[in-house]
Amino acid sequence: MGMDIVIVGAGLGGLTVAAALLHSGHRVRVFEQSRRLGEVGAGIQMSANAMKVLDSLGLRPALEPLSVRPKAFEFRRYDTGEMLHRLPLGDLHEQRHGAPYLQMHRADLHDALQRLVRALDPRAITLGARATAIDEGVDDVTVHFDGLPSVHASLVVGADGIKSVVRRHILGDDLPVFTGQVAWRCTVPTARIPHALRTDLVSTIWCGPHNHAVTYYLRGGELLNFVGCVERPWEEESWAARRPWSELDTDYRGWHPMVRAVIEHADSDQCYRWALNNRAPSMRWSSSRVTLLGDAVHATLPYMAQGAAMAIEDAAVLARALALPGPLDARLARYEIHRAPRTARVVRESTEMGELYHIGDAQTMRQAFVDRDIARSRNEWLYPYDPLRVEIG
Ligand SMILES: Cc1cc2nc3c(=O)[nH]c(=O)nc-3n(C[C@H](O)[C@H](O)[C@H](O)COP(=O)(O)OP(=O)(O)OC[C@H]3O[C@@H](n4cnc5c(N)ncnc54)[C@H](O)[C@@H]3O)c2cc1C
Question: Is the distance from the beta carbon of residue 308 to the nearest atom of ligand 1 less than 6 Å?
Answer without folding.
Answer: yes
